[in-house]
Amino acid sequence: GASSRARGEKPDALAALQAANEELRAKLTDIQIELQQEKSKVSKLEREKNQEVKQIKEHEQHKSTVVVTELKVKLHEEKMKELQAVREALLRQHESELLRVIKIKDNEIQRLQTLLNAVRDGAPDKVKTVLLTEAKEEAKKGFEVEKIKMQQEISELKGAKKQVEEALTMVIQADKIKAAEIRSVYHLHQEEISRIKRECEREIRRL
Protein backbone atom coordinates (compact mmCIF):
# COMPACT_ATOMS: atom_id res chain seq x y z
CA GLY A 1 0.00 0.00 0.00
CA ALA A 2 2.85 2.44 0.81
CA SER A 3 4.68 1.74 -2.46
CA SER A 4 1.43 2.17 -4.36
CA ARG A 5 0.92 5.64 -2.80
CA ALA A 6 4.51 6.64 -3.66
CA ARG A 7 4.02 5.70 -7.30
CA GLY A 8 0.77 7.69 -7.35
CA GLU A 9 2.46 10.84 -5.93
CA LYS A 10 5.33 10.95 -8.49
CA PRO A 11 3.11 11.85 -11.50
CA ASP A 12 1.41 14.50 -9.36
CA ALA A 13 4.77 16.02 -8.34
CA LEU A 14 5.99 15.98 -11.92
CA ALA A 15 2.81 17.68 -13.11
CA ALA A 16 3.15 20.31 -10.39
CA LEU A 17 6.78 20.88 -11.38
CA GLN A 18 5.83 21.22 -15.04
CA ALA A 19 3.05 23.63 -14.12
CA ALA A 20 5.47 25.72 -12.04
CA ASN A 21 7.98 25.65 -14.88
CA GLU A 22 5.35 26.84 -17.36
CA GLU A 23 4.32 29.59 -14.94
CA LEU A 24 7.98 30.72 -14.61
CA ARG A 25 8.35 30.68 -18.40
CA ALA A 26 5.20 32.75 -18.76
CA LYS A 27 6.51 35.24 -16.16
CA LEU A 28 9.90 35.34 -17.91
CA THR A 29 8.17 36.04 -21.21
CA ASP A 30 6.16 38.84 -19.58
CA ILE A 31 9.35 40.26 -18.04
CA GLN A 32 11.14 40.09 -21.40
CA ILE A 33 8.22 41.85 -23.09
CA GLU A 34 8.16 44.49 -20.36
CA LEU A 35 11.96 44.90 -20.62
CA GLN A 36 11.69 45.35 -24.38
CA GLN A 37 8.95 47.94 -23.86
CA GLU A 38 11.16 49.81 -21.36
CA LYS A 39 14.07 49.67 -23.80
CA SER A 40 11.80 51.12 -26.49
CA LYS A 41 10.74 53.87 -24.09
CA VAL A 42 14.38 54.67 -23.23
CA SER A 43 15.30 54.72 -26.93
CA LYS A 44 12.40 57.06 -27.62
CA LEU A 45 13.44 59.33 -24.75
CA GLU A 46 17.03 59.34 -26.03
CA ARG A 47 15.83 60.29 -29.51
CA GLU A 48 13.66 63.05 -28.06
CA LYS A 49 16.53 64.34 -25.90
CA ASN A 50 18.93 64.25 -28.84
CA GLN A 51 16.43 66.17 -30.93
CA GLU A 52 15.94 68.65 -28.08
CA VAL A 53 19.72 69.09 -27.70
CA LYS A 54 20.02 69.62 -31.45
CA GLN A 55 17.27 72.24 -31.42
CA ILE A 56 18.89 74.00 -28.43
CA LYS A 57 22.26 74.00 -30.19
CA GLU A 58 20.73 75.41 -33.37
CA HIS A 59 18.87 78.05 -31.36
CA GLU A 60 22.01 79.08 -29.46
CA GLN A 61 24.06 79.17 -32.65
CA HIS A 62 21.40 81.37 -34.25
CA LYS A 63 21.46 83.68 -31.22
CA SER A 64 25.25 83.86 -31.40
CA THR A 65 25.09 84.66 -35.12
CA VAL A 66 22.53 87.41 -34.50
CA VAL A 67 24.62 88.94 -31.69
CA VAL A 68 27.81 88.84 -33.77
CA THR A 69 26.00 90.39 -36.76
CA GLU A 70 24.58 93.17 -34.59
CA LEU A 71 28.04 93.90 -33.15
CA LYS A 72 29.54 94.01 -36.66
CA VAL A 73 26.83 96.43 -37.83
CA LYS A 74 27.37 98.64 -34.79
CA LEU A 75 31.14 98.63 -35.32
CA HIS A 76 30.66 99.54 -39.00
CA GLU A 77 28.36 102.43 -38.06
CA GLU A 78 30.89 103.76 -35.54
CA LYS A 79 33.67 103.53 -38.14
CA MET A 80 31.52 105.47 -40.61
CA LYS A 81 30.87 108.20 -38.00
CA GLU A 82 34.58 108.51 -37.26
CA LEU A 83 35.45 108.69 -40.98
CA GLN A 84 32.74 111.32 -41.48
CA ALA A 85 34.26 113.40 -38.65
CA VAL A 86 37.70 113.21 -40.28
CA ARG A 87 36.19 114.12 -43.67
CA GLU A 88 34.45 117.18 -42.20
CA ALA A 89 37.68 118.30 -40.48
CA LEU A 90 39.58 118.08 -43.78
CA LEU A 91 36.77 120.00 -45.53
CA ARG A 92 37.04 122.82 -42.97
CA GLN A 93 40.79 122.96 -43.55
CA HIS A 94 40.21 123.17 -47.31
CA GLU A 95 37.72 126.03 -46.86
CA SER A 96 40.22 127.88 -44.65
CA GLU A 97 42.93 127.48 -47.30
CA LEU A 98 40.53 128.73 -49.99
CA LEU A 99 39.72 131.88 -47.97
CA ARG A 100 43.44 132.53 -47.51
CA VAL A 101 44.06 132.29 -51.26
CA ILE A 102 41.13 134.63 -52.00
CA LYS A 103 42.54 137.19 -49.58
CA ILE A 104 45.96 137.04 -51.28
CA LYS A 105 44.33 137.52 -54.71
CA ASP A 106 42.32 140.50 -53.43
CA ASN A 107 45.54 142.12 -52.20
CA GLU A 108 47.15 141.48 -55.59
CA ILE A 109 44.25 143.12 -57.41
CA GLN A 110 44.42 146.13 -55.11
CA ARG A 111 48.16 146.47 -55.71
CA LEU A 112 47.75 146.35 -59.50
CA GLN A 113 44.96 148.94 -59.31
CA THR A 114 47.26 151.29 -57.35
CA LEU A 115 50.03 150.79 -59.90
CA LEU A 116 47.62 151.49 -62.78
CA ASN A 117 46.50 154.75 -61.15
CA ALA A 118 50.14 155.84 -60.75
CA VAL A 119 50.84 155.14 -64.45
CA ARG A 120 47.78 157.17 -65.51
CA ASP A 121 48.50 160.21 -63.31
CA GLY A 122 52.34 160.45 -63.28
CA ALA A 123 55.11 161.47 -65.66
CA PRO A 124 57.41 158.84 -67.27
CA ASP A 125 60.15 159.26 -64.62
CA LYS A 126 57.64 159.02 -61.84
CA VAL A 127 56.12 155.95 -63.46
CA LYS A 128 59.58 154.37 -63.73
CA THR A 129 60.30 155.09 -60.06
CA VAL A 130 56.92 153.75 -59.04
CA LEU A 131 57.41 150.59 -61.12
CA LEU A 132 60.90 150.00 -59.71
CA THR A 133 59.74 150.53 -56.14
CA GLU A 134 56.71 148.37 -56.80
CA ALA A 135 58.86 145.62 -58.25
CA LYS A 136 61.10 145.63 -55.18
CA GLU A 137 58.12 145.59 -52.84
CA GLU A 138 56.50 142.87 -54.90
CA ALA A 139 59.59 140.69 -54.77
CA LYS A 140 59.90 141.18 -51.02
CA LYS A 141 56.19 140.64 -50.47
CA GLY A 142 56.17 137.58 -52.72
CA PHE A 143 59.00 136.04 -50.75
CA GLU A 144 57.24 136.72 -47.45
CA VAL A 145 53.93 135.39 -48.80
CA GLU A 146 55.54 132.20 -50.05
CA LYS A 147 57.37 131.80 -46.76
CA ILE A 148 54.18 132.25 -44.73
CA LYS A 149 52.28 130.00 -47.12
CA MET A 150 54.84 127.19 -46.77
CA GLN A 151 54.81 127.54 -42.98
CA GLN A 152 51.02 127.40 -42.94
CA GLU A 153 50.95 124.38 -45.24
CA ILE A 154 53.50 122.59 -43.06
CA SER A 155 51.47 123.41 -39.95
CA GLU A 156 48.22 122.31 -41.61
CA LEU A 157 49.76 119.08 -42.85
CA LYS A 158 51.04 118.33 -39.35
CA GLY A 159 47.60 119.03 -37.92
CA ALA A 160 45.86 116.89 -40.54
CA LYS A 161 48.36 114.08 -39.96
CA LYS A 162 47.78 114.26 -36.23
CA GLN A 163 44.00 114.14 -36.67
CA VAL A 164 44.21 111.19 -39.04
CA GLU A 165 46.52 109.35 -36.63
CA GLU A 166 44.16 110.05 -33.72
CA ALA A 167 41.16 108.88 -35.75
CA LEU A 168 43.05 105.74 -36.80
CA THR A 169 44.00 105.06 -33.18
CA MET A 170 40.36 105.45 -32.13
CA VAL A 171 39.21 103.08 -34.88
CA ILE A 172 41.85 100.49 -33.91
CA GLN A 173 40.87 100.73 -30.24
CA ALA A 174 37.20 100.41 -31.13
CA ASP A 175 38.03 97.35 -33.28
CA LYS A 176 39.89 95.75 -30.38
CA ILE A 177 37.04 96.46 -27.93
CA LYS A 178 34.40 95.10 -30.31
CA ALA A 179 36.51 92.05 -31.11
CA ALA A 180 36.89 91.37 -27.37
CA GLU A 181 33.12 91.75 -26.90
CA ILE A 182 32.44 89.36 -29.77
CA ARG A 183 34.88 86.78 -28.36
CA SER A 184 33.33 87.14 -24.90
CA VAL A 185 29.79 86.66 -26.21
CA TYR A 186 30.91 83.69 -28.32
CA HIS A 187 32.63 82.00 -25.34
CA LEU A 188 29.58 82.60 -23.13
CA HIS A 189 27.31 80.97 -25.71
CA GLN A 190 29.70 78.05 -26.12
CA GLU A 191 29.79 77.54 -22.34
CA GLU A 192 25.98 77.69 -22.19
CA ILE A 193 25.69 75.14 -25.01
CA SER A 194 28.19 72.83 -23.24
CA ARG A 195 26.26 73.18 -19.98
CA ILE A 196 22.95 72.33 -21.66
CA LYS A 197 24.59 69.36 -23.41
CA ARG A 198 26.00 68.03 -20.12
CA GLU A 199 22.59 68.37 -18.44
CA CYS A 200 20.89 66.55 -21.29
CA GLU A 201 23.49 63.77 -21.20
CA ARG A 202 23.05 63.40 -17.44
CA GLU A 203 19.27 63.27 -17.91
CA ILE A 204 19.64 60.61 -20.62
CA ARG A 205 21.97 58.52 -18.43
CA ARG A 206 19.55 58.86 -15.53
CA LEU A 207 16.68 57.65 -17.71
Automatic annotation (TrEMBL):
GO terms for molecular function: kinase activity; kinase binding; microtubule binding. The lineage of its organism: Eukaryota, Metazoa, Chordata, Craniata, Vertebrata. This is Janus kinase and microtubule-interacting protein 3. It comes from the Eukaryota. The keyword Coiled coil applies. PANTHER family: GOLGIN SUBFAMILY A MEMBER 4-LIKE ISOFORM X1 (PTHR18935), JANUS KINASE AND MICROTUBULE-INTERACTING PROTEIN 3 (PTHR18935:SF9). It comes from Leptosomus discolor (Madagascar cuckoo roller). InterPro entries: JAKMIP (IPR024836). Keywords: Coiled coil, Kinase, Transferase.
